[in-house]
Amino acid sequence: MLIDLEVEDIWAKATSREHGKILRRIGAHHVVLPEFDMGERVAHLVTGRMLDYIEFEDDFAIVKTAAPSWAFGKPLGESGIRSKYGVTVVCVKRRGHDFTYATAETMIMPGDTLIVAGPAGKAEQFADMT
Questions:
Q1: Under DSSP, is residue 29 helix (H, G, I), strand (E, B) or coil?
Q2: Cβ neighbours for 115, distance < 8 A, ≥ 6 positions apart
């Protein structure tokens, strides 16, 4: 009925991936699978070295992880994280301090927590190195 009424932004909750496909085919603009999404997020947290994990559509993820030891004492611009691993360090948190936006000059230190963004597989691989 919402499609017939030409509603521009239709959200629907699916109970399975198959249900989600059906909802998209009949015109839902946004399909959420809360149980599936939370299960996937928890699985990433339990099995990997990630401190937090959020995956968006189109295979894009944001991961909270510890800084890898090989990056200690280097500014981000020289670490090669983006070019070698295909992820971008968005924020850095030092113990006892708030998160700060990362720049090319941001130094990575032991104990730092990083927020990285990029393709889900690459973000997961980067977190596995820490």
A1: coil
A2: 62, 63, 64, 89, 90, 91, 92, 93, 99
